[in-house]
Amino acid sequence: MISENLSFITDYFSSSISLAIPLAFAALGGLFAERSGVINIGLEGLLLTGAFVGAASSVLTENLAISILIAVVIGGCVGGVHAYLCVSLNVNQIVSGLAINLAASGLTAYGARLLFNTGTVALPKLPKLEIFGLKSIPVLGVIFQQDILCYLLLILIGLSTYIIFKTHWGLTLRAVGESAVAADATGISVVKVRYICVILSGILASLGGVYLALVHVGFFTEGMSAGKGFIAIAAIIFGRWHPVYTSLACFLFGTTEALQLRIQAFNLDIPYQFLVMLPYLIALFALVGIAGKSTPPAALGKAFNSQHR
Known about the structure:
The protein is mainly alpha-helical.
């Protein structure tokens, strides 16, 4: 009985981690964009773009490393488009993000049918790595037998925290996000900082899509991001624009999604539509719970034109 319980908890913990990782990549990317003052509603489309490009590249090149690199480059380019629209042209940031979501949804669906003949295709999965043979540790051992993208995420969380709060560039980034006009008056290039952050946002979110296709699911299907980009935005707010707290929020949402999948497996007399809603309800309740307690960067969503200080 104890071994069965441990096996259940281990599987549940492992599933929670797998479901949280794409959220955390997207949320980390969105955090950089929002810290610079640019809202990136397009995280959903960037996840979908990363998943499709990673899947298509793995089929065409049969090389996972090259596939990840191509997905990252394309994700950065899509982020660059969002930066150009929002920073250079001062297009409404939410409208630009929604346009990216709609375009990504349509183009990836069309591309999947064109390339794979159907909406899905089986893909090679990234291999798991074992660290120091620690996988035998009950429950927590799953942490030490993950793929390279999981370990990369852990490094990025720590690195992002250090950069944002302990470096001069992080101070510059936070200054731009709090008051672009004041930052510009001190000689900081607001446009440059925002471009870098929004492009970085596209790169990180596309890595989440790659993980979704090549690790978590193992195939590409139309609309496979399934609202994860919007949950990532909720995690950023719930985590108060801090990399560590945001990642923990992603893990919370990952455990919730893993729970609803486990409940469905028990064949309880509960409509599955309600169970599918569970992660989104938790995200909604979390946002309601911190209403008025989480303060965004003051310049978030505000256009900046250096010619009109």
